[in-house]
Amino acid sequence: MSREDLDKAVHLLWDGRLVAFPTETVYGLGADATNPEAVARIFQAKGRPATNPVIVHVAGIEQARRYTTDWSRNAQWLAEIFWPGPLTIVVPRAPAIAPAVSAGLDTVGLRAPRHALTLELLRLFDGAVAAPSANRSNRISPTTAQHVLEELGDRVDLILDGGQCDIGIESTVITLCTPVPTVLRPGDVELDQLRAVLGRVDVHPRFIEQETPASSPGQHPLHYAPQTSCFRYEADEYPHVVQYLAEHATSPIIMLALNARMLASPKHRVVGMPNHPPSYARHLYCALREADASGTSAILIEMPPDEPEWFAIRDRLTRATVRL
Ligand code: TXA
Ligand code: MG
Predict the structure, then answer these.
(1) Is 232 touching ligand 1 by the criterion CB < 6 Å?
(2) CA 102–ligand 1 middle distance (angstroms)
(3) Which terminus of the chain faces fewer neighbouring Cβ atoms within 10 Å, N or C?
(4) Which of 42, 44, 47, 1 shows the shortest CA–CA distance to 22?
(5) Which CATH architecture has domain 3-203?
(6) Which residues of 129-138 are buried (b: 16+ CB within 10 A; e: fewer)?
(7) In tens digits, what is the pLDDT along the chain, a chain of 324 residues?
(8) Quick one: which of 192, 205, 185, 202 has its CA closest to 141?
């Protein structure tokens, strides 16, 4: 990404156009959050339902304060400690932010991303950039500029290439607009880190009820999902896997597994996943994309342990799969 690209990006944003940019989590599809027509273009390009609010990106605390009617002490602490970084803070929305950004809610999710060039872009733009992940709605978030091109092609006016995203999964979202601060989406900033700053922090019940019945993929609230049928299993459910593989001995199947296993059929392939949560997160969406593009008939994913450092990854896997 050159200086020229940055200048071009700033002008496009001022003009109400769409610019995809890198962050430390995933690539974002950005537009001026104070311009309703520009915001409408985001929803159109992604095919995103108008009921799903979009995160607003700012260069830092000074800008964030302009876009909320209540920058509380808690917001200040969180921003001082975790920004720039993978934490979105939901606060009351100021009138300057187009209501469509927040799907009509009177709140707004704000975040300063930890990516030098994008921070420079946000400083030069000197405003609020609404940016969901730069993928078609419900598809896998992009972690390289090439992924953005595959997802959106000419639906975006400019794609800034900042290499591969460092973290690889979307930011933690916390709302300060509930009586007790509540995590709405787990991410790289963990619950314990938030509790160390705020004291009590709740987790939205959606993430506690992780068990979903083995229903048809169509009935599952799939998100971040490949187009290939995608199943998950816990490490101790391996006997189910053996049975499944035996029943599908002649079908191509890819397994994303932490533990390498012997496979009977040459049609079946194991992709080893890193046993370290940050490395796993960094590789996850690439691995899913590659498996999806390989023409396999099913993707089987071994769930990592049910432990706090795997919480965000288990959330994404749960939403991309059904139980085997
Ligand atoms: O890491 C990220 O956050 C990436 C990069 C590009 O910054 N962005 C991202 O945006 O993941 P998006 O639009 O795909 O995620 C939006 C999610 C919503 O589904 C919702 O969970 C939460 O963020 N959110 C945004 N604004 C909110 C609000 N006002 N109230 C509650 N939740 C909100
Ligand atoms: Mg998204």
Answers:
(1) no
(2) 9
(3) C
(4) 1
(5) Alpha-Beta Complex (3.90)
(6) bbbbbbbeeb
(7) 788 999 999 999 999 999 999 999 999 999 999 999 999 999 999 999 999 999 999 999 999 999 999 999 999 999 999 999 999 999 999 999 999 999 999 999 999 999 999 999 999 999 999 999 999 998 999 999 999 999 999 999 999 999 999 999 999 999 999 999 999 999 999 999 999 999 999 998 776 544 443 333 333 456 667 889 999 999 999 899 999 999 999 999 999 999 777 676 889 999 999 999 999 999 999 999 999 999 999 999 999 999 999 999 999 999 999 999
(8) 185
Residues of the chain with CATH 3.40.50.11030: 230-323
Question: Rounded to the nearest whole angstrom, what is the distance from the C-alpha of residue 132 to the centroid of ligand 1?
Answer: 6
Q: Token match 């979009």: residue?
A: 54
Residue for token digits 């932010």? 97
Q: Which ligand 1 atom is at minimum distance from the Cα of 170?
A: 1
Asked whether 90 lines ligand 1 (CB < 6 A), one says yes
Protein fold of 230-323: Rossmann fold (3.40.50)
Q: Is 109 in the pocket of ligand 1 (CB under 6 A)?
A: yes
